[in-house]
Amino acid sequence: MTINVTKAYLPPLAEYSAYLEGIWERGWLTNNGPLVQQLEMELSNHLDGSLVQFTGNGTVALQVAIKALDLSGEIITTPFSYVATTTAILWENCTPIFVDIEDHMFCIDAEKIEAAITPRTTGILATHVYGYPCDVLAIEEIARRHNLKVIYDGAHAFGVRVHGRSLLSYGDLSTCSFHATKLFHTVEGGAIVMNDAELARKVGLYKSFGHVGDEYFTLGINGKNSEFHAAMGLCNLPRIPEFIAARRELSAAYKSGLSGITLQFPESTDESLEYNHAYFPVIFESEEQMFRVKDGLASNEINTRRYFFPSLNKLPYHIGADCPISEDISQRVLCLPFYQQLAHEDVRRICQLIRELLA
After folding, report:
1. Which GO terms of the molecular function aspect are on file (predicted)?
2. According to the model, what pLDDT value does residue 78 have?
3. Using alpha carbons only, what angle is made at residue 270 by residues 266 and 273, rounded to the nearest 5 degrees?
4. Which of 1, 48, 112, 349 has its CA 20 to 30 A from that of 222?
5. Residue 140: burial class (beta carbons within 10 Å; 0-12, 13-18, 19+)
């Protein structure tokens, strides 16, 4: 049987069906229905009281976030992320300015940000890579000194805490992806997380065509989500602690099974970090070695993913400045199968195959 790199969790059908019965009774399918409102409230409680706007996906969340903060000109960003981080900037007619990453968690290197700031810089859009936090305190101080707005792409960061707070509570806005491949999913979906009520009202208008009923306030798009997606989220949200616990055990099993091989894993020395174990990336010694493992596992019906590749400063439609660390890591990284339903015996088999392929 094929082992995929991710696998969506599906709750008991009866539990989801109970929400569907309510949708059928009400006939209210979308447009800020009661389940969407309930999910936003429960997400807010889960995220230390931050305000949450549920969106159609994580990409539209990024686009609305940029618009809601009135960003223009240049936005400093990371080259090591999913392509949506860069394309959202371009889509909003801004210019991404790439700053290279640090070499242990692969987030944007805060020490290199100030050198990239120009009179045209209006914001910083950084990614918490694989759920590991950016240097949020340093970035906050840089933004304060230069009067810049901060957006965090937290697509991988749901369930992470640092310095005693939800990681998604940092910055002017954080965005999430609730895609089916994520730790917490609503099949398709995303969210914008913030701590400012007026900004939350603005985001709510922007994602809903800019009007409430017959009152029109501003421009907007259709960034809403449905009752069906909210129902999936309401089923999955209470299970997040058990998902993280299962992933923690799988991560330990992988590291044990791969011990003694010259491989690099992301690592944090921050003792305040409560990690969510979003993915299991491995950095090989060379691209040739990475392909040897990728192809060898594929021949055994085990799927992996080059996540992230390419380094975004090398996209064919927007070439940025050289970022040697990001370019190097993107050539050598591979995400192994990782989801809470993955059997430990499959982890042992994958590790054994990697050992044989690298022997």
Report:
1. pyridoxal phosphate binding; transaminase activity
2. 98
3. 85
4. 48
5. middle
Instruction: Quickly list H helices, 27-95.
Output: 34-46, 58-68, 83-91
265: burial class by Cβ within 10 Å (0-12, 13-18, 19+)? middle
Residue type at position 126? A
156 within 8 A of 130, measured Cβ to Cβ = yes
Residue 160 tokens, joined: 């992470």
Structural domains of the chain sorted by starting position, each given as residue range(s) with its CATH number in brackets:
13-237 (3.40.640.10), 239-358 (3.90.1150.10)
Place of tokens 């798009």: 221
Residue 319, pLDDT score = 87
Strands 215-216 and 211-212: antiparallel
Place of tokens 């990614």: 127
Report which of 201, 188, 178 is spatially closest to residue 68, judged by C-alpha positions: 201
At residue 302, φ and ψ (nearest 5 deg) are: -120, 115
Distance CA 155, CA 126 (A): 11
Tell me the pTM: 0.97
Q: Give the containing element (helix H, strand E) for 176.
A: strand 173-177
Q: Is 62 exposed, middle or buried (0-12, 13-18, 19+ CB in 10 A)?
A: buried
**By percentage, how much of the chain surpasses pLDDT 70?**
100
Which position among 67, 149, 182, 294 bears the catalytic label?
A: 182
Q: How far apart are CA 103 and CA 209, in angstroms?
A: 42
196 secondary structure, DSSP code: -
